[in-house]
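Researcher: Structure prediction, please.
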Amino acid sequence: MVKVVSLSEQAYRELRKNKEKAESFSDVALKMAGRRQRSTSRFVGAWERGDLDMTGAALKEQRRSARTEELAF
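Model: Predicted structure follows.
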C-alpha cells in the first residue's frame, strides 16, 4: 500500500541527502527511523561488575596521573 506524505523542504533535503542511488525514499525513511529508535537500554547488563571496577580504577589512575603531570610544569 502506498501513502502520500507531505514533507517540509528541509525534511525532503535531509532524506535526499541520505538516499543512495539504489534506495527508495521509503528505504531511507525506514533507515533513518531505525537510528532514532535505538535506546541505551540495549546496553543494560552488557558489562560485568569486574569490568566496571577495572574501568573505574583505570579512570581514577588516569586522572591522578594527569593532575600530577599538570603540577609538574
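Model: The mean pLDDT is 79.
Researcher: Thanks, that helps.
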